[in-house]
Design a protein that fits this description.
Helix content is about 85%, strand content about 0%. The protein contains 2 helices and no strands.
Length: about 70
Amino acid sequence: MKKQKFTLQVRLLLIIGLLTQSICLLFGQYFMMSDFLRGLLQGLGLALMIMALVKQRRNNKYFCRSRKEEAY
């Protein structure tokens, strides 16, 4: 089984999502944040990570389809 390669766009989305989550947690420890702002940042980070996973899955499906078509 081959190792999956992440595209640059997927890696960037994952990294930005993880950074958003971690920054939200760190700022919450040291600064007073409203619930709205905290929820917004956590939701944004989560949405970016989900987008990255969906994008990777779509890229992987197209890659597998094109390889199967070439085999026939």
